[in-house]
Design a protein that fits this description.
By secondary structure, the protein is α+β, with helices and mostly antiparallel strands. It has helices at 18-26, 41-50, 87-92; strands at 8-11, 30-33, 62-71, 74-83, 102-109. It has two domains: 1-34, no CATH class; 39-109, no CATH class. The termini are far apart.
């Protein structure tokens, strides 16, 4: 047993399951799950949502953060976007009723 209340639980894509999300919510904690193709259409829908986003000039309701990392002679730029506009995703995937926000990224190595 873990005391999770008030915590943020991070889990990789293997643990990205709605039953786990519900258990975390029942413990009065929040979660951050990595989402990959193992979730099929859930993943596809999130990717499709962020695909048209202009990361340099995002629309209202989307926040973008850009970070840079220099390593081994390369500069890697990472653009991350987040929105709390997740109601449409819950409507399409009702088992994921505890989704509060979604995030997407765009990376450009070497720039």
């Amino acid at each position: 047993m873990f005391a999770l209340q008030g915590s943020i639980i991070t889990i990789d894509a293997m643990g990205c399951q709605y039953a786990i999300a519900e258990q975390i919510g029942a413990a009065k904690a929040d979660y951050l799950f990595s989402l990959k193709g193992n979730q099929g259409t859930l993943h596809d829908d999130v990717v499709e949502y962020f695909e048209p986003v202009d990361f340099k000039n995002p629309e209202a309701g989307i926040q973008v953060v850009t970070t840079y990392e220099v390593d081994h002679g390369r500069i890697e730029r990472r653009d991350q976007a987040v929105t709390d506009d997740g109601a449409w995703l819950i409507a399409r995937h009702p088992l994921w009723k505890s989704i509060k926000s979604i995030a997407g990224k765009r990376g450009n190595a070497g720039r």
